[in-house]
């Protein structure tokens, strides 16, 4: 039983210290340390979201075009039947059109300028629904062979 206590205290002390620190930050209000901590969490979350977005594009390309390594998609495309080269981007465009007309207010992808506008004019708020729809539309566009930038949806 005594052998378990040191292991338990090794875990409980850091947890208690973290909890005490967190409680102090919440009580003191929005101080400099709290803003740094929140910025760190937001940065880590945004970085992982960007990685998942890029991975989603690769996964969609691999699934639709049936290639194992999407970095070699350009050389693999010559082996596809002509109708697949035509149909995959057309179907992707139709899905994107549906998403944009159904889920975004201006029927367009929201990009970097919309994030800047939200920060400057709308108390730092951007439309979550439009942002997610724009990210999905951009992911489908890029995954099906369309031409658009990867930066806008990642920034949103």
Textual characterization of the structure:
The termini are far apart. The chain is mostly helical and 156 residues long. It folds into two domains: 30 residues; 124 residues. 74% of the residues lie in helices and 0% in strands. The radius of gyration is 23 Å and the shape is elongated. The longest helix has 34 residues. Helix 2 runs parallel beside helix 6 and helix 4 runs antiparallel to helix 6.
Task: Tell me the layout of helices and strands.
Layout (H helix, E strand, L loop, with lengths): L3 H25 L3 H34 L7 H4 L5 H22 L8 H10 L6 H16 L7 H5 L1
* Overall 3D shape: elongated
Give the proportion of residues in helices: over 70%
What string gives the helices and strands in order? HHHHHHH
Largest sheet: none
Class based on secondary structure composition and strand pairing: mainly alpha
Taking all Cα atoms into account, the compactness measure Rg is 23 Å
Determine the strand fraction and express it as a percent band. Answer: under 5%
Helix count from the secondary structure assignment:
7
Number of domains: 2
